[in-house]
Design a protein that fits this description.
- With 539 residues, the protein is α/β, with parallel strands linked by helices.
- It is built from 18 helices and 23 strands.
- The strands form five sheets. It has a nine-stranded mixed sheet with strand order 13-12-14-15-23-22-21-18-19, sandwiched between helices. A seven-stranded parallel sheet has the order 5-2-6-1-7-10-11, with helices on both faces. Strands 16-17-20 form a three-stranded mixed sheet, with helices on one face.
- The longest helix is centred in the first third of the chain and has 18 residues.
- It is globular.
Length: 539
C-alpha cells in the first residue's frame, strides 16, 4: 500500500485569510485528479469542541454524520469534496490535553513527567495520522488554526516539524498562507510582512514549501521572484490568491496558478489525469447566470455575524444554482422584529426561513414570523428551533392554547408543546450531550416532504435537546398540522407541514449540513422553487 502523503496549511500575517477555502480548493483539485483526499482542522483553543461556543464568538457549529460538533471549516470541506467528515477531522487543544491527562491518570506513561514535548506533540501527531492510517486516503490535508507566532499554536507547529522528519522526504509539505497588503498611499504591494511571517515559521524549524499569497491586486513576476528569493521557495511555488467574487471560484483560480501541480511535484506524485471540474463549472455557470431572483427572509437571533448561519447561506447558493435563481438573503433580527411596523419589509419577501438557535431571546419575533407566513400563504421553512416555533405558533393561534411554549423558554408553561427529551433530563454537562449526528426518519406518504425526498426513509443530522411533545400530537394533527416525518426508533416527530398552504415545512433536523455543490439538498431546492413561484405570482 502506498504511503499516505501529508500537506500542512499554516497561516501568517493575519487571521481570516481563508486557510479553510485554500485547503478545500486544493483538496478539490487533487480529488479531481483522482487522488482520495480528505482535510482535517487543528484548532488551538482549549474548548474540547465548538459546541459550547457562542455563534457570535466562533460562527456556526458544524455537525458531522457521526455526531461531532466541529469548526465551520468542516462544512466547507464537505461542500467542496462531497465527502463526509468525522470526529477525526477536527481536533482542539482541549481534546488533546484531555486525552493526555486521561492517559496519565490511567498510568500509561509509567511514572514519567508529562510534558508538552514529547507527550502533547505525540498526541497531536497521532491525531494527524489517524485519517492516513485508516487506509482510506492518498493525501491528508491538515489545516492549522490561528496564525504562526501565536503561543497557542506552538505545540502544533512543533508536532508538524517532528512529523515531517518522521515521514521522510517527499511525503509531506507545508503550504503557508500569507497576506500581501496593498498600501494605497505608496500604490504598491508590500512583501515584508510575508518575509517576517516565513522567518517566524523558520524559527520553529519549518520551512514553507509553497507560499499562497492573499492579495487584492495582481502579483507580477518580479514580485514573485522577490518573494521566492527572500522566503526560500521556488518561483513556481509562489501562488497568487486574489480576491474572488465567490469562494467557489477559488479552485479554478488555484488551478490557473498551478497549486495542484507544484503540490504533486513536491510530493513526488504523478498527475493521474487533468482535473475534471466539469460538474463544478456547470454549477458555477448556473450560479453566475441566474434567470430570475428571489428574496428570502432569514429570521434569526445571530444575524449580525453571517458565519452563524454559514451552512444555510451556502445551501441557498447550491439550491439557487439548481433552480437558476439568484437567492437574495435578507437577514432579519428576530429580537427586534415587529410584523406590523415592518410590514413593507416582510411583504417584499418571497419566502421565510426561521433559523435554528438556543434560548429565550428573540423567540416571540420568530413566532410572529411563522404566523405571518402561515396566514399569508408565504413559503415557510423552519429548521430545528424554527420548526419548534411553528408548533408553538400553531398551538397558540389555531388551538387557542395561548400560553403554549417550549420548556426551554418557560419551564412552567401549562402547555409544553415542545419539551426536553427524556434522555436529556438528568444531563449536567452541556458539551457534546445533545442529540447529535445522523438519525433515521420515516416519511408519511402523500405528504409534501415525501414528494420532495421521493423516498420513504431518510437520514439527517441533528443538534437539539428539546423535542415535539407527542402528548399534543393528536390535537395538533386534528387541527391541520401534519406530522409527516417520524423517527422510527423514538417516535419523535421530525417534520411538520400544512396541507392547505403552498409550502409550509418545519424540520427538527439540520438539512443545511448535508447540502454540497455536487448534491444540493432537496428541501432547499424545493423551497427555492416554491419561493420562485410565489414571486412570479406577485407580479
Amino acid at each position: 500500500m502506498a504511503q499516505t502523503k501529508y500537506i500542512f496549511v499554516t497561516g501568517g500575517v493575519s487571521s481570516s485569510l481563508g486557510k479553510g477555502i485554500i485547503a478545500a480548493s486544493l483538496a478539490k483539485l487533487l480529488q479531481a485528479r483522482g487522488y482520495r483526499t480528505t482535510i482535517q482542522k487543528l484548532d488551538p483553543y482549549i474548548n474540547v469542541d465548538p459546541g459550547t461556543l457562542n455563534p457570535y464568538e466562533h460562527g456556526e457549529c458544524f455537525v458531522t454524520e457521526d455526531g461531532a460538533e466541529t469548526d465551520l471549516d468542516l462544512g466547507h470541506y464537505e461542500r467542496f469534496l462531497n465527502v463526509n467528515t468525522s470526529q477525526a477531522n477536527n481536533v482542539t487543544t482541549g481534546r488533546i490535553y484531555q486525552s493526555v491527562i486521561e492517559k496519565e491518570r490511567r498510568g500509561e506513561f509509567l511514572g514519567k513527567t508529562v510534558q508538552v514535548v514529547p507527550h502533547i506533540t505525540n498526541e497531536i501527531k497521532e491525531r494527524i495520522q489517524i485519517l492516513g492510517n485508516s487506509g482510506g486516503y492518498d493525501i491528508v490535508i491538515t489545516e492549522i488554526g490561528g496564525t504562526v507566532g501565536d503561543i497557542e499554536s506552538l505545540p502544533y507547529i512543533e508536532a508538524v516539524r517532528q512529523l515531517k522528519w518522521d515521514l521522510g522526504e517527499h511525503n509531506s509539505l507545508v503550504i503557508h498562507l500569507t497576506l500581501i497588503p496593498y498600501l494605497s498611499a505608496a500604490k504598491e504591494l508590500k512583501t515584508k510582512p510575508t518575509q517576517h511571517s516565513v522567518k517566524t515559521l523558520m524559527e520553529s524549524g519549518i520551512s514553507a514549501d509553497v507560499l499562497v499569497c492573499r492579495t487584492e491586486h495582481k502579483i507580477n513576476v518580479d514580485l514573485k521572484k522577490k518573494l521566492a528569493q527572500f522566503c526560500n521557495v521556488s518561483v513556481e511555488a509562489v501562488i497568487e490568491s486574489i480576491d474572488a467574487s465567490t469562494i467557489y471560484d477559488v479552485p479554478n483560480l488555484m488551478l490557473e496558478e498551478g497549486l495542484d501541480t507544484i503540490t504533486l511535484k513536491k510530493l513526488d506524485l504523478a498527475s493521474k489525469n487533468d482535473p475534471n471540474l466539469t460538474k463544478w463549472n456547470q454549477f458555477l455557470q448556473r450560479h453566475k447566470n441566474p434567470k430570475s431572483e428571489i428574496t428570502i427572509g432569514l429570521i434569526g437571533k445571530y444575524v449580525e455575524l453571517q458565519d452563524s448561519y454559514k451552512s444555510i447561506l451556502e445551501a441557498f447558493i447550491h439550491a439557487g444554482a439548481e433552480n437558476e435563481v439568484k437567492v437574495n438573503i435578507k437577514s432579519i433580527h428576530s429580537e427586534f422584529l415587529d410584523i406590523n411596523k415592518k410590514s413593507s419589509l416582510i411583504e417584499s419577501l418571497d419566502g421565510i426561513l426561521v433559523a435554528p438557535g438556543f434560548g429565550e431571546r428573540g423567540i416571540e419575533g420568530k413566532i410572529e414570523a411563522v404566523r405571518y407566513a402561515r396566514e399569508n400563504k408565504l413559503p415557510f421553512f423552519g429548521i430545528c428551533l424554527g420548526m419548534q416555533m411553528a408548533v408553538i405558533e400553531y398551538a397558540r393561534n389555531v388551538l387557542n392554547l395561548t400560553k403554549a411554549n417550549s420548556t426551554e423558554m418557560d419551564e412552567n408553561t401549562p402547555n409544553p408543546v415542545i419539551a426536553i427529551m427524556e434522555d436529556q433530563k438528568d444531563i449536567i454537562y452541556k458539551g457534546g450531550t445533545m442529540r447529535l449526528g445522523a438519525w433515521d426518519c420515516e416519511l408519511q406518504e402523500d405528504t409534501l416532504i415525501h414528494k420532495i425526498y421521493d423516498r420513504k426513509k431518510i437520514s439527517e443530522r441533528h443538534r437539539h435537546r428539546f423535542e415535539y411533545n407527542n402528548a399534543y400530537k393528536e390535537q395538533l394533527e386534528n387541527a391541520g398540522l401534519v406530522s409527516s416525518g417520524i423517527n422510527p426508533q423514538t417516535g419523535l416527530v421530525e417534520v411538520v407541514e400544512l396541507k392547505n398552504h403552498p409550502w409550509f415545512v418545519g424540520v427538527q433536523y439540520h438539512p443545511e449540513y448535508k447540502s454540497t455543490v455536487a448534491n444540493p439538498h432537496p428541501l432547499f431546492i424545493d423551497f427555492v422553487r416554491a419561493a420562485k413561484e410565489f414571486s412570479e405570482q406577485k407580479k
